[in-house]
């Protein structure tokens, strides 16, 4: 196991800060929370030149470097080399189902919303806004196609696939809400990598996705999850300053430490979108940049 040298700075390199979060990238924010839970001191640095790189996030400590594209990802390397928060909880019966809900169903739903289900603005601000527009748009459209291919989305099945993704996400939220109950952590009331993953997911859904987001509307139905997110956001991001609930979607450039839980304007089905003359899902999201 690697040793931390207090005389050598530790740095977590992430995609840029946006939507009032230390970073808008789900993997980066998960790593941020994991290090905070593990009480590993670190500075935060932003990698702007290659925002599409699968090496991001990565962690530097002296001559030590761990990248996210290494086997099993950055958090697994941090667990192995610095601090393993999961040793006391990975053997409980609920571990596997909780991990599957987070890393499969909810991860898929968030990726779908960022690149297919919404207008593309959130994904652009998180991943591509520092690149020249032609390059950023090409990378974005490549990721749109990648998400569609992963889920087998085509013109003739787009509505069915969307309903399937959101149904699974809704089931995942219900399961996690039940699992959480009134505790401060998902399992055994102690922090784990699953809490880091869930907090990152929930904060991006609440703060980066538009109010019309279906995923956001489903998450807002669970008061205990909102309490859980608000508590840890206050402890780990706001550093003791008061967090405020505000009823609107935050601009990407905003740096205010607030968690939005306003009532969304539901966008419950493709049929409703078409009735409002929105662009149909099978033609891809409407990129406004």
UniProtKB/TrEMBL annotation:
* Superkingdom as given in the UniProt entry: Eukaryota
This protein's name: Uncharacterized protein
């Amino acid at each position: 196991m690697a040793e931390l040298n207090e005389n050598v700075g530790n740095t977590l390199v992430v995609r840029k800060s946006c939507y009032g979060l230390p970073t808008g990238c789900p993997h980066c924010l998960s790593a941020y929370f994991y290090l905070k839970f593990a009480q590993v001191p670190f500075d935060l640095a932003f990698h702007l030149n290659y925002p599409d790189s699968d090496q991001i996030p990565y962690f530097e400590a002296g001559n030590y470097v761990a990248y996210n594209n290494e086997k099993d990802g950055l958090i697994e390397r941090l667990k192995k080399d610095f601090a393993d928060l999961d040793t006391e909880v990975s053997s409980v019966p609920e571990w596997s189902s909780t991990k599957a809900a987070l890393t499969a169903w909810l991860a898929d739903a968030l990726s779908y919303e960022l690149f297919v289900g919404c207008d593309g603005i959130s994904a652009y601000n998180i991943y591509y806004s520092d690149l020249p527009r032609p390059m950023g748009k090409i990378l974005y459209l490549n990721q749109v196609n990648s998400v569609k291919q992963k889920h087998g989305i085509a013109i003739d099945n787009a509505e069915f696939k969307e309903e399937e993704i959101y149904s699974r996400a809704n089931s995942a939220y219900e399961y996690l809400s039940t699992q959480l109950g009134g505790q401060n952590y998902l399992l055994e009331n102690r922090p784990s990598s699953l809490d880091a993953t869930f907090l990152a997911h929930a904060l991006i859904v609440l703060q980066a996705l538009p109010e019309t987001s279906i995923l956001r509307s489903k998450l807002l139905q669970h008061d205990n999850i909102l309490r859980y997110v608000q508590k840890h956001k206050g402890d780990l991001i706001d550093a003791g300053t008061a967090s405020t609930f505000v009823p609107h979607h935050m601009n990407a450039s905003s740096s205010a430490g607030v968690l939005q839980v306003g009532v969304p304007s539901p966008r419950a089905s493709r049929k409703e979108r078409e009735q409002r003359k929105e662009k149909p899902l099978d033609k891809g999201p409407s990129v406004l940049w």
